[in-house]
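Reading a protein record of the kind used here takes little practice once its layout is understood. The fold follows as a row of integers, each naming the local backbone shape at the matching residue. With these conventions in mind, the following record can be read line by line:

_____
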Amino acid sequence: MKGLDFFPKVAMNDISKQTFIGSTLSIIAISLMLYLLFRDIIDFYSPHIKTDSIVQQDEHEHDKIKINLDLYFNRAPCHLLSLDQEDSLRNHKLDISDTIEKISIPNSKTKKTFSKAEAYDLNNLYNAVTNTHGCELKGFLEIAKVPGNFHISFHNYRSQWAALRQQKPNLIPNIRLTHIFNTFYFGDIDEKTLLQYGITPRGYFSEVKLNDLPNFLANQESKNYDYFIKIIPYELVNENRGTKKHTYQFSISYKESNFILSQDEMPMILVKYEFSPITMRVKIQGRDYLHFLTHICAIIGGVFVVFSILNSILTSIFDFDSNN
């Protein structure tokens, strides 16, 4: 046991002698060093994440980001639905169909891709409304980083809506914009990337299905729906790899109001959005190997010095010479 003593004491005859106390302290010191070294190595190779907020002017406001959505209507046929988008830069797109797919859903729940040619066939429209066909809008639309909105209504098929009201007014009660968002998110960052930056992929981040958004499918009256969205940019910086990515969190509120056929031209879902001037920056900080080595040396030297002092005190108290 005494052979493990790293703190030998020099006796009066100048002979270095090892003690039981020194051996015990040596074992404790080695165990403490190994524990601290192990913790330091784990800490060094673990990502060090720092989060702060910055106010910055987006120099690339004309760059586009994606709004990804999957929106299901149970009482509105694809023949009438049009998704339009506009913003404060005066961009205005009508009936977006290059990136948004319309899928017709009959009562049998058999999905069928809808073509624009069908929208102009009034007989098909009458049949779809009579049988309360539904529709799914699925895909994405690109928006500039400025305030704007997108809305879903019958605007692009105004003539078909007017013909339906004039020729088949008894079918109008069959049409409602009752809906549910199956998916709605901004950008392209996946959940795995978010987790790397210590971000739990919920709270309206990328690729998170909105199970807690309202389900309006059961509404029995025709209504207008308004959503208000605040988009919060996130800048993800990895100093170790020299990479920078962007994603977006958002908060959302909504309201519904009655649609009165005699007063309102047609029902509508209006989704307004704006970008926060505050950008959240999440940074994986780089690690310095020289700093790591210095810390290791400090651990070894510090533990050795502290236990050397303890050894001197204890051996003096218990009278080194009398015990040997």
